[in-house]
């Protein structure tokens, strides 16, 4: 029986969207905000990108932690991030702000893929909520990768991320990327750089768990370029930009 193939067009605009985009002061966002249709509410005044919200809720449900863990801050518009940054400069000074608050345009919160969480208490610090390495918070941390989340800003990686240690800040990157990063102790900066060593169609990074095998590869895109990728019609795949110069292609084999 002849295999039915499906062509998927990828263009240079795809570099700047997807679950694996790297957002920091060196690689700020190209788009200012996320459309309202792509956001889901998860709490009073707090939204996340739809899939990110769904996976967070599934994880909290598994842990029976909805009342024990509080969503403190999710999606922010450029104006909201600008206000938070300016207020922090006034209230906390430049050193604190540059360590814990991203510049407007360079904040993961503007993607809808990042969430700040706090242990549920009567009073919670908005910028630095308590999320200790014990109890329900640690249980969340240990399960996070299985649901596509990473703790984004680790203490020993401050020189790489440019942000201080934030035990409360989690970023959705999707599975199996979250597992690979967790097992390899890699930041998103390091991971996107590593994937660039695995060009599409030549040398994929292979991840296996159980009967499932996943191939991950990188395709650099020139300005205004469009490429056609071929997949089996029933294949499970995902294409995400890295917010740098290319796209990351994730292809599942086996279910």
TrEMBL record:
Gene3D superfamilies reported for this sequence: 3.30.1380.10, 3.30.200.180
InterPro entries to which the protein is assigned, alphabetical: DD-CPase-like, VanY-like_core_dom, Zn_M74/Hedgehog-like
Kinase among keywords: no
Keyword Hydrolase listed: yes
SUPFAM superfamilies (alphabetical): Hedgehog/DD-peptidase (SSF55166)
PANTHER family: D-ALANYL-D-ALANINE CARBOXYPEPTIDASE, PEPTIDOGLYCAN L-ALANYL-D-GLUTAMATE ENDOPEPTIDASE CWLK
Protein name: D-alanyl-D-alanine dipeptidase/carboxypeptidase
